[in-house]
């Protein structure tokens, strides 16, 4: 086996690669990039997108239990910031939530980055499910500016479900006492409008890059999770994480 295939097959460790470099043993440029990318300790990111009530939070919790990712919900972080005493963004965030509008990316992206840094520091976990983000072009551009160089983006989970089912689930969640100011018909109409006009183009953008894994979330949660698990196992076999 030659040197190239030793690296390619990951028989050489990062330390050995460094040794080769010091000893002036030449690695081909593209193989070196491939090797260092595989060894990257940047946070691994999966975006989870889908309509309101499609089951993003539900499936993320199951993934956390089985695959050890940390779940970061952009909506939860925004609700937390809205309720934080002294937050200068509370009123703006609440107005966006009730009216199904998207909060400016500078706020959301900073909340996400801080949560990632905190998680890494406190638990060492470096694999994240980012739920409900990027939701529009502003989110996408802001993420590219602030975060894209700092992370390894893996793919988008697109949880797909009909509007009728999704609305029914959110209303039921509201009736069961979610306490969310947007689990009502008025807000849901606006949230769906934003989803169709602003979020679908983002999903399509990633589809064009072949970065979308689509899951039908109309069956019950456990049935849906079987498909999620298959997709994640495949990604794991591809050594994406
Ligand atoms: N596959 C499913 N079948 C039936 N009910 C479900 C399913 N998945 C989730 N639910 C229920 O539907 C409601 C919405 O689910 P969840 O909060 O996971 O959705 P979401 O996509 O995160 O919603 P949002 O975007 O509004 O935060 C919850 O009450 C949840 O228990
Ligand atoms: N990237 C995001 C995510 C969410 N919001 C706002 O929060 C609302 C609730 O989001 P859920 O994911 O918990 O349903 C959403 O309707 C937006 O108003 C946001 O602005 N940006």
Shape: globular
- Percentage of residues assigned to helices: 55-70%
CATH-derived topology of the largest domain? Rossmann fold
* Mean pLDDT metric: 90
Ions and ligands = adenosine-5'-triphosphate, the ligand Nc1ccn([C@@H]2O[C@H](COP(=O)(O)O)[C@@H](O)[C@H]2O)c(=O)n1
Largest sheet: 5 strands, parallel
Our estimate of the beta-strand percent is: 5-15%
Taking the alpha carbons of the first and last residues, their distance comes to 27 Å
Q: Major sheet: order of its strands?
A: 2-3-1-4-5
Family: Belongs to the adenylate kinase family. UMP-CMP kinase subfamily.
Subunit structure: Monomer.
GO cellular component, one term: cytoplasm
Function: Catalyzes the phosphorylation of pyrimidine nucleoside monophosphates at the expense of ATP. Plays an important role in de novo pyrimidine nucleotide biosynthesis. Has preference for UMP and CMP as phosphate acceptors.
What does this structure look like?
The protein has 241 residues and is an alpha/beta fold. It has 2 domains: 3-37, no CATH class; 42-237, Rossmann fold (3-Layer(aba) Sandwich). Helix content is 58%, strand content 12%. The chain is built from 11 helices and 5 strands, in the order H-H-H-E-H-E-H-H-H-E-H-E-H-H-E-H. The chain has a 5-stranded parallel beta sheet with strand order 2-3-1-4-5, with helices on both faces. The radius of gyration is 20 Å and the shape is globular. It starts with a helix and ends with a helix. The chain binds adenosine-5'-triphosphate and the ligand Nc1ccn([C@@H]2O[C@H](COP(=O)(O)O)[C@@H](O)[C@H]2O)c(=O)n1. The ligand Nc1ccn([C@@H]2O[C@H](COP(=O)(O)O)[C@@H](O)[C@H]2O)c(=O)n1 binds at residues 52, 74-75, 78, 96-97, 100-103, 108, 132-133, 135, 139, 182, 191. GO terms for molecular function: ATP binding; nucleoside monophosphate kinase activity. It is found in: Cytoplasm; Nucleus.
